[in-house]
Specification:
Elements (H helix, E strand, L loop, with lengths): L7 H4 L11 H23 L6 H11 L3 H6 L3 E6 L4 H16 L6 E3 L7 H10 L5 E5 L5 H8 L3 E4 L7 H4 L2 H15 L5 E5 L3 H7 L4 E6 L18 E3 L12 E3 L11 E4 L2 E3 L5 E2 L8 H16 L4 H8 L11 E4 L2 E7 L3 H7 L7 E5 L25 E5 L3 H10 L4 E3 L3 H4 L7 E5 L1 H11 L2
Parallel strand pairs: 1-3, 1-4, 2-3, 4-5, 5-6, 6-9, 13-17, 14-15, 14-17, 15-16
Antiparallel strand pairs: 7-8, 9-10, 10-11, 12-13
Helix pairs in contact: 2-3, 3-6, 5-11, 5-12, 7-9, 9-10, 11-12
Length: 442
């Protein structure tokens, strides 16, 4: 652990010694960036979004090496996983900025959640002189980011069934991470890994250094078979382990849950020196304490003191619109994002209002297959007024019927949110969530 007496300038230094770009390469990148900015401006003017993605697409079309050039010479921390990567990256960015103080301009962060190659390139181009990059990274991009950026820290959160029509089986993603870490060897990142997730543990085994975080994860339905040998995994119940989250092990090989360097327990975070920290976050849910624990471990690896890191994290309240309370016409709505069964399992217990709006779509960004609806325990909404909305509202209606939950089906999102006297909680998949952000001015 770094000395708490060190200044941020001692620890948060440039992470690599990349050679400066040659004039022709620099000119090509500059031209691509200008063209990308023009495309982004046109996108915003047409009301088609922030323009971050189209900017990156134009940049990388004109300069295919743009991402590698923009990553070069930076100290990089990557955050990836199926759920929680946006919030965790916001926590980490807030922690590092709090540590840097007046030098916070040194940080670049893809705060809007654009986490594919194009979105990352776009974000980096907004602050090309920044020497610290804190990047949310889509699961498919991790291997390329390790190869191109040589990150200092890599945070691996979890794997869950998410957009299987796009990602195929999640073990293939885990294997790509494992192989990338093995190929990087001693030049690879220090990994912060969720010890509760068998596929994460297997993927991180080839890393040069791992800080394990026991996150008190309760979702186990995506981890029934050992990623190493294919045998059954055994998950002990929290009651069998003192009430602090379960423990898992393989029945056919030595793969088992590692002891945590950090641990989430009863809403607190216990660090490597056995100090207990009350995170006092301004975002709800025990899963966000787990996200904060992973961000804290990463921040410490980057030289930030725990006190300063948590002080910064407490400034995070609505990362990329998550948990934001917005006014949509005459309705006050709190926005919750849930992309897959694991995310819904965390989001539904946070619902507080008597009327709940559930918004479902199956666009490319949501995943075309909505059969996962049957893995979500909508039964817990019984007794509330539930409104099913979005293009796949009818599919959700069938599921709610089988859960014996009374509902109204209003497919149009704006109509579903119209004229509620009392505040409502809205739980939405990715595409309607982004539309809700826009409707609410977030």
């Amino acid at each position: 652990m770094p000395s708490l007496q060190q200044s941020p300038h001692d620890r948060l230094s440039v992470g690599s010694t990349a050679l400066p770009l040659r004039p022709r390469a620099r000119a090509r990148l500059a031209a691509a960036t200008i063209a990308g900015r023009l495309a982004a401006t046109a996108s915003r003017a047409a009301g088609r979004g922030s323009g971050a993605s189209i900017k990156g697409k134009v940049m990388m079309r004109l300069d295919p090496g743009a991402l590698g050039k923009l990553l070069a010479g930076k100290q990089i921390a990557l955050v990836s996983g199926t759920n929680g990567k946006t919030t965790t990256t916001h926590f980490l960015a807030a922690a590092v900025r709090a540590w840097l103080g007046s030098d916070a301009h040194r940080v670049v962060h893809n705060a809007d959640g654009a986490n594919l190659h194009h979105g990352i390139a776009s974000a980096l181009s907004e602050n090309p002189t920044a020497d610290i990059a804190l990047l949310e990274t889509d699961e498919r991009v991790v291997a390329d980011a390790i190869r191109l950026g040589r990150p200092k820290v890599l945070v691996l959160l979890n794997f869950s069934r998410d957009q299987l029509d796009r990602h195929h089986e999640i073990k293939a993603l885990g294997r790509s991470w494992r192989n990338a870490l093995a190929a990087a060897g001693q030049n690879g990142p220090m990994v912060v890994a969720n010890a509760d997730e068998p596929l994460i543990v297997w993927a991180a085994q080839t890393a040069k250094q791992v800080t394990w975080v026991n996150t008190a994860t309760t979702w186990t339905q995506d981890a029934s078979l050992c990623p190493n040998c294919g045998s059954s995994l055994v998950h002990e119940q929290p009651s069998e382990t003192g009430g602090h989250g379960g423990h898992w092990h393989c029945t056919g090989c030595p793969l088992t849950q590692p002891a945590g360097d950090y641990e989430v327990r009863d809403g607190t975070i216990i660090d490597t020196e056995h100090r207990v920290w009350d995170p006092q976050l301004n975002v709800p849910g025990g899963f966000n304490v787990s996200n904060a624990a992973c961000a804290l471990a990463a921040a410490v690896l980057m030289g930030v003191t725990p006190q300063t890191a948590l002080m910064g994290m407490r400034t995070v309240s609505a990362p990329a619109g998550r948990f934001a309370t917005v006014q949509i016409k005459d309705t006050t709505a709190r926005l919750l994002l849930a992309k897959n069964p694991a995310g819904w399992a965390e989001a539904l217990p946070l619902v507080q209002t008597s009327t709940v709006v559930l918004a479902i779509d199956s666009a490319a960004a949501d995943g075309r297959d909505v059969s996962w609806l049957w893995d979500v325990e909508y039964e817990q909404l019984a007794g509330r007024t539930v409104i099913a909305t979005g293009p796949r509202a009818q599919d959700l209606a069938v599921r709610l019927s089988h859960a014996d939950v009374e509902y109204r089906c209003i497919p149009d999102l704006a109509d579903a949110l119209a004229s509620h006297r009392d505040p409502v909680d809205v739980v939405a998949t990715y595409t309607p969530f982004q539309r809700l952000r826009k409707m609410g001015g977030v």
